[in-house]
# Entry
Amino acid sequence: MALIHQMYSPDLQPLLQSLLAALTDLDFEYEREREKLSVDLPEGRAKARVLKMLKDRHGARRQPYLQQLASVQEHILRVPH
# Structure
């Protein structure tokens, strides 16, 4: 059996799992809301505007988590293995 070496400190694993879980939850919620609105709203500019607002809000909610992940990645790359 081949051994896989961890590329990061075990202390970071809970943080990484938490960040990834939060992003997964946000993505799931966004997809659920987008689907519901796509079905419920009549076609037209109002629908397109609402869906764009939903997408923009989703991006804004994801951004802090993505920034934290980038910070953790930078930390991982700086730490000698």
Q: What stands out?
A: Residues 41 and 47 are 6 Å apart (CA to CA).
